[in-house]
Design brief:
This protein has 6 helices and 2 strands, in the order αβααβααα. By secondary structure, it is mainly alpha-helical. Strands 1-2 form a two-stranded antiparallel sheet. Helix 2 runs antiparallel to helix 3 and helix 4 runs antiparallel to helix 5.
């Protein structure tokens, strides 16, 4: 039987079981909202790369809130995306669109942050802003309702 990406992440120590921590989850949501506010301000300027990074950070912290709530510590942004996809999107606790955006933001953020060449952002950052905002709201609702994925 083939292992899932999430199982591989746990085996490699990139995801680790910890005690569920609702306080950390709530703090991570606040951090997500902070980065979303920062992105909104940056979007008023011409600094697209920085706005994109802030949008990714907002989505990452929202996703991380779910991991904290589930008792999972992350050491890999890739594994966070795979966890959200497998544990939340496949069980329809978040939308396919939100899962895809999280992972595509992660990938593009890597290009922006680590490439030796300037990036050419063609994405509509205002549209991404709305998607990230919706994702954060969905995370807050999921945590408030106590919905957890089937393990």
């Amino acid at each position: 039987m083939t292992k899932s990406k999430v199982e591989e992440c746990f085996e490699q120590g990139l995801l680790k079981k910890i005690k569920s921590n609702l306080n950390y989850a709530e703090q991570s949501v606040k951090q997500a909202e902070h980065f979303l506010d920062e992105a909104e301000e940056i979007l008023k300027t011409s600094m697209k790369d920085m706005a994109f990074i802030a949008l990714y950070n907002a989505s990452f912290h929202a996703a991380r809130a779910l991991l904290f709530r589930d008792g999972v510590k992350e050491r890999s942004h890739y594994c966070v995306c795979k966890y959200i996809e497998e544990k939340y999107q496949l069980q329809e606790l978040i939308t396919l669109q939100q899962s895809v955006i999280l992972d595509s933001l992660r990938s593009k953020r890597n290009d922006i942050q680590y490439s030796l060449e300037q990036s050419e952002l063609e994405e509509d950052l205002n549209e991404i802003f709305e998607e990230v905002s919706n994702f954060i709201e969905r995370v807050k609702e999921t945590i408030a309702k106590g919905k957890k994925p089937v393990q």
